[in-house]
Amino acid sequence: MIRVVHNAKKRTLYLSSALSAITLAIGLTGCGTPSATNSLSSDKTNSPQTKNLGTANVAYAGSLQLVNDTELGPNFTHQTGIAYIGRGGGSFGVAHLISSDQITPNVFESVGVAPIQLLEPHYTSYAIGFASSPLVIAYSPTSPFAPTFKAIAQGKLPLKTLFTLMESKNFHLGRTNPNTDPQGQAFIMMMQLAVKYEHLPSGTSQKILGGTNNPNQIFSEESILSRLQAGQLDASSAFLSEVVQRHLPYISLPSAINFGDPADQSIYATTHLRLSDGKTVTGSPLEIYVTPVQHTPDAKAGVSFISYLLSKPGLAVYEKNGYELTPPVIYGNRSAIPMSILKEVKAN
Known about the structure:
This protein is of the alpha/beta class. Helices cover about 35% and strands about 20% of the residues. It has an eight-stranded mixed β-sheet. The chain starts with a strand and ends with a helix. About 10% of the residues have low confidence.
């Protein structure tokens, strides 16, 4: 089954596989093992049509840097002959750079659809969700709190202990900017849910965070885990996929508070966060969406990259790197999706 998110009403409908020609009788979670034959066949890979498409210029949420730049991008170039370049940043920050014409990628990968909505209707009219990545708490093995972290991770101490630790004055916590990054927003809203589901005292969130925009805790999405690895932080927010890729120790969070399970969307939607610009965001699953960016160079190369990403080999790279593959989500104008992309989605 597919989930279609309609632009006008911003809601998700579940459609059966008999609904239309693009209907998907698939379960993406079954794509863990790459197929022996890439969906881009060797004759297509070697054709002038693919080699002369230019460069796939991909702007992505910073948490996707390793999977894109070290594996997916090089694999894509190897299979298609099309060059790849990438750049990362907070999803909202990247969307603002695109909408102000400061950067001109032909593909944008976002955490959630809200950053993509900033590009409508001039730069895009659809997006496809394909994976999620729950929030976890990554921790430094050199932290003085490391033995306690490990005991919590192993279930020897209750999760409630973690939040008590984070209230300590000498605790160094890292998180990303909620004004530019969905992870930063979700971390704060996770704290709201933790108070309820872990039966924490009221005021716990404020004690830990020290305010929504506490400059002592906020770091860029691209650098925060490097700071953690360098021992500058005791713990930080992270996606499960990131800690898997970097081989970092971490503490899992229950699905009701980790923003990683689309089935818990109604729970996440009970949380709200007011940003510095006065806008209020509502909690939603941390799903990865990809969209082409219109009116930018080498648009066909971008479409080819999306087709590869959504192919079995492309999705296998994501799954190997800790992402949880989800049934595909079509957001926006379904009729605008090229057949080359629909073909790969339907094949899974």
